[in-house]
Specification:
Blueprint: H1 2-6, H2 11-26, E1 32-33, E2 47-51, E3 68-75, E4 86-94, H3 99-107, H4 123-128, H5 134-152
Antiparallel strand pairs: 1-2, 2-3, 3-4
Length: about 150
């Protein structure tokens, strides 16, 4: 994991990655659960945490999502009076070309999975479904996250 952080392209990204891992360790943040993805290793028992030059994980920078990921898992603690969940960072790297997910799969010695393609929608249903731009979908996702955060307060 240390080599992954040192391989990040800038010292600022390296610092942000360390800050985000520290936040994970203290329980201040929690990443999203990974889902099984076609043509990728099965990492559905792992989680991902976003980061970029902005430390705010929900901020869309220049119309794009954060480009870096920390892939980790929570493991059962060793038995004892101070038993807590253990955090295992599996990989830190780029989202581009699924680099970080492939690295995590390799480290965990997991093979790529191949799933059947999703069934095609009928032309009439596909035409009826509204299409959103990527920017609109990101804006709606950020709004939903902010709304969920305000309800928790």
């Amino acid at each position: 994991m240390g080599a992954d952080i040192l391989a990040l392209p800038t010292a600022q990204l390296q610092r942000i990655a360390l800050i985000r891992i520290s936040q994970l360790t203290r329980g201040e943040v929690r990443g999203a659960a990974l889902e099984a993805m076609a043509r990728h290793p099965d990492l559905s028992d792992l989680r991902k945490l976003y980061f970029d030059l902005s430390q705010n994980e929900f901020r869309v920078v220049g119309g794009r999502a954060p480009q870096w990921r920390i892939v980790y898992r929570l493991r059962d603690a060793l038995p004892g009076p101070d038993a807590r969940m253990l955090l295992q960072v599996v990989a830190v790297g780029a989202r581009a070309a699924s680099e970080v997910y492939q690295l995590a799969g390799t480290r965990l010695e997991r093979q790529s999975i191949v799933r059947a393609p999703a069934p095609q929608q009928s032309p009439s249903r596909a035409a009826a479904a509204p299409r959103r731009s990527l920017a609109e979908a990101q804006r709606l996702a950020v709004e939903r996250l902010r709304h969920a955060q305000s309800r928790r307060r």
